[in-house]
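ASSEMBLY PREDICTION REQUEST
Request ID: AP-0331
Submitted by: J.K., bench scientist
Number of chains: three
Total residues: 618
Priority: normal
Notes: Please return the full assembly, not individual chains.
Input sequences:
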Amino acid sequence: MQTLVLVLDLIGTFVFAVSGAGKGVANRLDLFGVLVLSFAAASAGSIARDVVIGAIPPAAFGDWRYLAVSALAGLITFARFRAIQRLRSAVLVFDAAGLALFAVSGAQKALAFGLTPVMAVMLGMLTGIGGGIVRDMLLAEIPIVLRSELYAVTALVGAGVVVVGHLAELPPTGVTIAGAVLCFGLRVAALRHGWRLPTAKPPPAT
Amino acid sequence: MQTLVLVLDLIGTFVFAVSGAGKGVANRLDLFGVLVLSFAAASAGSIARDVVIGAIPPAAFGDWRYLAVSALAGLITFARFRAIQRLRSAVLVFDAAGLALFAVSGAQKALAFGLTPVMAVMLGMLTGIGGGIVRDMLLAEIPIVLRSELYAVTALVGAGVVVVGHLAELPPTGVTIAGAVLCFGLRVAALRHGWRLPTAKPPPAT
Amino acid sequence: MQTLVLVLDLIGTFVFAVSGAGKGVANRLDLFGVLVLSFAAASAGSIARDVVIGAIPPAAFGDWRYLAVSALAGLITFARFRAIQRLRSAVLVFDAAGLALFAVSGAQKALAFGLTPVMAVMLGMLTGIGGGIVRDMLLAEIPIVLRSELYAVTALVGAGVVVVGHLAELPPTGVTIAGAVLCFGLRVAALRHGWRLPTAKPPPAT
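STATUS: Completed
Returned structure:
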C-alpha cells in the first residue's frame, strides 16, 4: 500500500508541478520563481495535509524525490514553455490525473493517521486542491478552483470512494484504483461538457 | 470549562462562516467556493492556533461539528444571500460576537497547552482574526483587519482579560465571560462611533 | 551554538520587521496592520520552518523576545517612516544581512532536528525568504522574491555552506559565519550590479 501511495504521489507531483511552472512562466516570474511555483503547486496540498495530521516532517520535506520531481518538471516547463502551451488540453488531462491521484493518496494517508472518515474525505480533497490554491494565491489571484467548473467535487468523490471502501473493509488497492478512476473520469467529463456548479445571484452593487 | 469552550467555538464558527460565505457570494464564487470561504473564515484562525500550539489534529479537522456548522452557515447564506445582505448591520454585530468568543476560547486553549501568558494573548487574538485574514487573502484582497477600524485590538483586550484572570487564579468561567463581554462591547462601540487606529503619513510616491 | 543562533535570529528579526513595517506604512495600513506586517515579515519564515520540522511551539511564539523585537521595529518604522525611507539603500543592505542570518540559522536548526542535508538547505532558504513572501501575500502582491534580482539563490548558497560544513564536520561557528558572509556578500553584489535570473519568454497572449 505504501509503495502504491508513493508512486501515485510522485506522478501527481510531476503533473501539478508542470501546471504551477506554466502559470509562473506566463506571469513572467524568473527561474527561481518558476521553481517555487512548481514546488508549491505540487506540494502545498500534501504539506498542509501532513501538518494537520501530524506527519512531521511532511513527506515533501522528508523525501528528496518530491523535490527532485517538481524541480525537474519546473525546469522542463521553463525550457520548453511554448511546446507545453501547445499541449494545453493534454496538460488539463494530466492535471485531472494529478487531482485523482492526490485525492485518493491523501485520503489513504489521513485514514492511516487515524482521522475520522468524514475528515479523511476532506483531507483527500485538500491534498488534491491545496496546491492549486497556493499557486494562485502566490500570484495574487482568486484561486480558480473556487469559481471554475467541477473540480474539487470530483476530488471529493474520489476520496469518498476510498473512505467508503475502507469502512466496508474492501481491499485497499482496488478501492484506491476505483476512486482515482472515478475522480479522473468525472473531471474529464466535466472539462468536455463544461459542467459547472451554480453561483448565487448577488444583488446589484450598492 | 471544555464544554464552555466548545459551545463558544461553535457559535463563533457559525457567525464567521456567514461572513465568509457572504463575501464569497459577493465575489461570484460558485457553491463550492462559497463553502470553502465559509470554512476558511470560520476555522483558519483556530487551525493556525492548533498547529502552532501542537493540538494535532486541529479541532476543526478532528471534530465534525465545526465542519457541519460552517457548511450549514454557508448553505443558508448561499440560498438566502439577499435576505442576509439586508441584515448587514446585524451581521456586523454577530461578527463582533464571533470575534469575542474566538478570542477568549483561543486564549484559554493556548494557556491549557502551556504557552506563556503573553503568547496566550497573541494566540487568542490570532484565533479571532485569522479566519478573516485568510478569507480576504483567498479573495486576493488586503485583509480588512489590517486597515479598518478598531477590530483586532478588541480581541487583544478580551484575550488579555482571560490571561490576567488566569494569572490571578480567578474562576475561569467568570473570567471568560468578562473577557468576551468586554471585547464584544468595545467592538460594538467602535462600530457605532467609527473608532479607528492612526495611520502613518507616507511621503508622496516617488 | 544555540546562543549564536538566537543572536543571529534576533538581529535578522529586527531588520526584516523594518522591511515589513515599511511596506505596511506605504500601503496605508493602520498601526495594528503595520505591526502585523512587521511580525509577519520577521517571523513567518521561521514559523513555517518550525512547524515543518516539528519545533512546537515555534520559537516566534515560544520566546517573547522575537515578538518584542519585531514590535519595536514596527513602532520605530511607524513613527519615523520618512527618515527610514531616506535610508532606503541602507535598509536594503540590512535586509541582505537579515537574509544571510536567517538562511544560516534556519539551516542549522533544520540539521539539529534531523532533516536531511538537502532539506536543511531548502529550509534555510525558506527561513530567509518566507517572511517576505507572506508580507507580500498579505498585501495582495506577487512576492517580489519570485521575480526580482538574485535574492533566494544567495540564501541557498549561504545555507549550502552551513550544510556542507556540517557534513565535513567543520566547526559550526566558523561554518556559520562563512555561510552568512558569503550570502551577504553575494546579495550586496547582486544589488550593486543588478544581477538577475533569466525569465522564460512566454508566447504572445492568446
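REVIEWER COMMENTS: Chain C has one domain: 2-193.
SIGN-OFF: pending second reviewer
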